[in-house]
Amino acid sequence: MVWLFLFFWYFSALPQVCLLISGAAGFEGLRNTVFLSLVWLIPVLLLPRWTRPISALLGLMLWGAALVELGYFFLYGQTFSQTALFVMFESNPAESGEYFGQYFNFWLALGLLAYSGVAFLLWRRLRPVHLPRPHALAAVTLALLASLGDPLAKTLEADDLNVARLESKIQARIKPAVPWKLLLGYRQYHQQLNRLQNNLQEPAALPPLAHLKDANGDTPRTLVLVIGESTARPRMSLYGYARKTTPRLEVLRDSGKLAVFNQVVAPSPYTLKVMQQALTFADPQHPDRFLSEPSLMRLMKQAGYKTFWITNQQTMTRRNTLFTTFSQPADAVYYLNDNPSQNTNHYDEVVFAPFAEGLRDAAPKKFIVIHLLGAHSHYHNRYPAAHEKFTGRQNVPVGLSNEQFYLYNSYDNAILYNDFIVSRLMDMFLENDANGFLLYFSDHGEEVFDTPQHQRVGRDERAPTRNMYTIPFLLLTSPEWQKTHPLDLSALADRKYSSAHLIHTWSDLAGLSYDQFQPELSLVNPAFREIPRWIGDSDDQKSLRDFDALPH
């Protein structure tokens, strides 16, 4: 019996022991795994003759779930947040493969191999436990009571057998043990996805914005929103970086055509969470508002715009995800990257043709969203050979290994190519003589060996660095639009702002007002008021912190 229990407990205990030793979690999680692991004894006590095959099947399931949790701990030194789980469920196989390839190393492989070896040795020690039937049933009852009796008792103590309360307490109890965190996260992910899908299929489920007014009336105009990917502001020479990574955007700035905002940060280092906030009325302190209120796309459609969504983000044959629900209300949708592998064949220049088509469209009022792959890892896949300019060690942090040095240069080359893409989109907009504006921002930044001790790459909301959140925020206005909308943006360049409130800035720029519009949350409004720029896991409000509290 002891070996059976140790075998099943091992899968949940090891991740919790690692978290406990590192200080990332307390003792409660480890304690709960002791009781919850008793559940897996039930089938082998009832069917002792099948102990080895049942244990093997259950062990494989638990091994896989624990492997994911341990791998995440080895990379980030902590457990999954709900946001990280949602990002994982949103990712397609190609993106997951790229992510795994970037972070996989010898020590990670050795640790996971050792973990798997111990699990196999424990399985070899298993033997059937034959109990008289009444004793086996009694043991099963005790296992169930030990595992789930506590949340049931606490619910009954409230003198009200509330099913929702009981479910909440059970979830809190079982989360530390594998595979429940993954399963519960997957369930919550699909609950949100289904709710958004229902909103799409039944537009009446979301009430329109009340008292919507357009200050520009029926004047023909074209408004463009370009969303970048993984582009950190400190790695752009436009913002003072030593390497010349954004020469074309600098020309536009120096010509007076481009307004550059210096103090904008993202609310999250994950694309999905940023989109849920920047393109809706949600924010870090109210993360679920995207489920119950109209999005930016719906706002623009209500205002009478013909809407376009152009994306080079991989969509895996348009599969339904939380991410694609933002694009589905658009009148014209261009999914340009259905390739099963995020490889070098899908550079961002593929957005030029559909953008030109949108600019030529005869609709008097047009809203065009372009979502780029930007500097998404793997960085060397984001640009063609002609844009590989940075190959030496000049202005590279000292002490990087050859592999880290290659990643550092590849990221700068991706930024350089992104400069070509974004500036070309701006040139196309101006060449079209459109009346309107083009706003570009990146979903989030990226840490690529920037922060001392120059050993980190990627993003992690539980261990943030400034580069993960600092983003470019650029506004290009057409000459015709400037005539009717004179605004001295240079005086606003250093306002501290979070892209979580983008919908208010966009509405202000577009001349749209409605009941939910908050002028103090618009970067370009005279009533603008600086407030804390919250970052962190918005599903865990206690984890939120002010970006300005991060060390420089």
Strand content: 5-15%
Shape: globular
* Class of secondary structure makeup: alpha/beta
The termini sit apart by 54 Å
Note poorly predicted spans.
none
The average pLDDT score comes to: 88
Could you name the CATH topology of the largest domain? Alkaline Phosphatase, subunit A
CATH architecture of the largest domain: 3-Layer(aba) Sandwich
Radius of gyration: 26 Å
The level of helicity is 40-55%
Q: How many strands, which pairing sense, and closed or not: the largest β-sheet?
A: 7 strands, mixed
Provide a concise account of the structure shown:
With 552 residues, this protein is of the alpha/beta class. Helix content is 43%, strand content 10%.
Task: Please characterize this protein's 3D structure.
This protein is α/β, with parallel strands linked by helices and 552 residues long. It has helices spanning 2-22, 27-36, 41-46, 51-76, 82-90, 93-103, 106-124, 133-157, 163-174, 180-201, 247-254, 271-278, 296-302, 352-360, 402-431, 479-484, 502-510; strands at 213-214, 221-228, 258-261, 264-265, 306-311, 332-335, 365-371, 436-442, 447-448, 457-458, 473-477, 497-498, 512-513, 534-535, 545-546. It folds into two domains: 2-193, no CATH class; 222-229 and 257-549, Alkaline Phosphatase, subunit A (3-Layer(aba) Sandwich). The protein has 17 helices and 15 strands. The strands form five sheets. Strands 3-11-8-2-7-5-6 form a seven-stranded mixed sheet, with helices on both faces. Helix 4 (51-76) packs antiparallel against helix 7 (106-124). The longest helix has 30 residues, at 402-431.
